[in-house]
Records
---
Amino acid sequence: MSRPMSKMLIYTGIFFAILFGIYGVKKILFMWYMSHYQPPAVTISETTAKRMAWQSYLNAVGTLNAVNGVDLSSEAAGIIEELRFNSGQYVRKGDVILSMRSHNEQATLKNNQATLQLARINYEREKTLFDKHVSSKAALDSRYAELLRAQAGVESAQAQIQQKTITAPFDGRLGIRQVNLGQYVSPGTVLVTLQSLDPLYVSFSLPEQYLADLYLGQNIDVSVNFGKGKTVQGTITAINSKVEPSSRNVLVQATIPNPNYQLYPGMYGLVKIWLKKDKEMPVVVPQTAISYSLSGDYVFIIKNESDNKNEKNLHVYRQYVKVGERRDSEATILEGLKPGDSVVTSGQLKLQNGTRVVIDNSVELS
């Protein structure tokens, strides 16, 4: 081999040696860098799991009913002579609602009163004769029977006249009248409805398994959707004495105040039945701290892995939990957390097991 060719081969070998050396050094440096690389910390917000007083409740759908509610109707037939109310008017017990023509009944009453007066005179005369031993006991008894019959006739006529006048049996609000002045009505014709509005009953049903949790005087909240909505507090006043075999539900009745008459019988409301307070306060976290998956519900727990107490090296780890009752923005944790655990409340989509984090509670993260 010629001398120039040998030099070329030597130079070529040196070149490739340098090239592969540079590549090897770069690879070693890259591997060293990757082994010491830490991704940037994810910004999250957090809160501390803590025990709180918690009162459980049951939900039901209820119907509002009047304590007293009737369709006022006439006992006797007649022609309406006077209407003494307006539709929707509030009336007191004993107020006259309407009166019907009673000319014939008034005439009958006068006739029976005259008969009664005569029977009374005849009885007194017969009694005077009996005291003087001029008349017999049988004649006196006959006059007394006539007096009683005449008195019964007067009471019967008065009762017929009273049936021509319809009065309010209790305090309440009248509905829309169903009859007109001068109209002939027969017995049983509905004239107007009357509903007492304060207080009101709320009737609802619950499954039989909750019977042990119900008691008289138990507090409830009733939410009614009208206008901007309204929540009224009340108490359970009656529990039915049997369970319906078809539905296995028990009927419950509660009483709520309605001093401003804003609620009406027939409305429906969402009923919240408050149970006795839990003896042991549960661990509570915001619902935003809980993530849901097919494998189960979980939260991210924050741990400080720094050896120096004055420094923070925060990492998060997935912790599966058993979620209990949810209410508004909070939820109880039955298993998986203990009081004092720091949990992530936002930013969970960027997290994995072992992710390094920094806490910033000043902003709400997604």
---
Amino acid sequence: GINVTASHNPAEYNGYKVYWEDGAQITPPHDVNIMDAVLAITDYADVKTMDKDEAVKAGLYVQIGKDVDDKYIAALKKQVKHQDAIDAVQKDIKIVYTPLHGTGNIPVRRVLKELGFENVYVVKEQELPDGDFPTVSYPNPESEEAFELAVKLGNEIGADILLATDPDD
């Protein structure tokens, strides 16, 4: 699989991440083998292309849907080690979440809901995907500055947890 992304960087840094059949980013030797194949191309006219309809018919293009989403959510929920701890606080704990204008909004909120968290507040200004990141100069969840709006909302509602995801997660 290929994910075209600049992650939390400006759009001019767009590139792509390559994933292997196990769903993880490629590692040696696959990375080297793929680059060797790319570098072996000396004339782009030699690159084989295919119409989308033809690729679909050949089984080479598959658009993923709810079945993949459901499996992904189930896999995330399996990572929980102490559901009993969640059960003890899920009605009381307040979580502020920001997807930082990225793709995490739907899956993160779904997982939190399915785990039983009832008080999840989303930073509305950063809820929808927007590659221009209009509310933050550097949307990296490792950066304190990326949390400014989450902190503001957290203070307003008395949040226990502030949570942000990288825009391409």
---
Amino acid sequence: MHNVTPLQRKLFPLLYLPSRLYAMAMRLRRQWYESGALTSYKPERPTISIGNICWGGTGKTPLTEWIVQWAINEGLTPAVLTRGYKSIPPELPYLVHEQSTAREAGDEPLLLAKSCPEAHVVVDPQRARAAKWIAKHHNPDLYLLDDGFQHLGIERHLDLVLLRPQDLTEDWNRVIPSGPWREGEEALTRTAAFLIKAPQDDFQALEPFCQEFLAQYKAPVFPFTFSPKGLTRLDRSESARGFGDEPYLLVSGVGEHEQVQRTAEELLGHPPIKHLRFDDHYNYQEDDWKFIREKADLANAERVLCTGKDAVKLVQFNPYNLWTFDHTLDFGPGLFTNHSFPDWWRATWPLL
């Protein structure tokens, strides 16, 4: 998770000017695309960007999966265009399949391809090239641009922008290098809808900040949560609501370790006997799994629990008694609208 660091706060007077210059450069770049000085590719089908204003995780992958599942249920074939962070694909563009490895596809694209095999998940840092390729070979019904807010080389029909709670408080408009924002606040005028990963009580506490900062953009604001509904053993041989009172070891290679632990405690009713934390998008090796298993055995924890992102990378080691979360995406009532996000989305789709 990228927040304004204590050092950035201390150096803010020195970083303010470089921050404004960076925001100005991004604004100029955006104007060049809008004027046609820089060309962008326009797909023939509806194109939706799912992105954020800041660096770091905001829940883009779960939201992308929700829209993908909605499209499949409607009889549509979606294509997800993604960079594939830290991936080393054998070719570009690279169409991810269920037998791809996390090294080839990246952990999140692989997780999405396994969860939604009917979708086309394409890895390529050049989204326009990926869109042209998938249009030629598979002709999808819609395009989803993963982390696409700043990728203006491909036109979109609407931008969904995900925010963190701190983006509305201490991090507001703190652009690189003084903070985690990738563009200045004026970029948010492109937004069709904002989404904030926050429980309803936390979202209500944010409403004054939404009124102060977001009302000017005339876009609805929707809260959502990524809630655990159960556990599945990685070999799919067993599902469970919990582990009873038995100890378990927790593994996470994500940007929000504390959130993963809170999720585990909420579902299981007690904390892990030990929590091993790895860097976000960590590339696990066989020695890492041996280390994890050794720590679990020393703690008398028969079961190891991890996130889906970790599971798609650990599965190659034929892990014993490795479990992962089953999640559901829940949406709360929106702000500046009478709809929840699913209702808003269903009403907006025919207009694209």
---
Amino acid sequence: MNDHPSLGLDDVVHQRVRLGILTIAHEARRVEFGYLRTQLDLTAGNLSKHLSVLEGAGLIEVEKGYEGRRPRTWITLTPAGTTALADEIGRLKQLIARVETTPED
């Protein structure tokens, strides 16, 4: 059985934008849609698609509401999202360790 760390990478989490969303949501605990859009340099439509994928996988919760009269959307990492992010980071660290310990030619 092959146990190479790359085999355990989760395509839902590992995609660059979604990994960024999960990381920012982890740091902030609750993050506003506009902040994510700005930080990740995305269009609203593109960000919405990535959020839908993460929400469908149960990794985030999306809450819509108002701040005063302005509509807002907040994103929170779920416990499953926290676990998935930690697992992904662990596998990435394993990959990095393999490169750092590989003798140079």
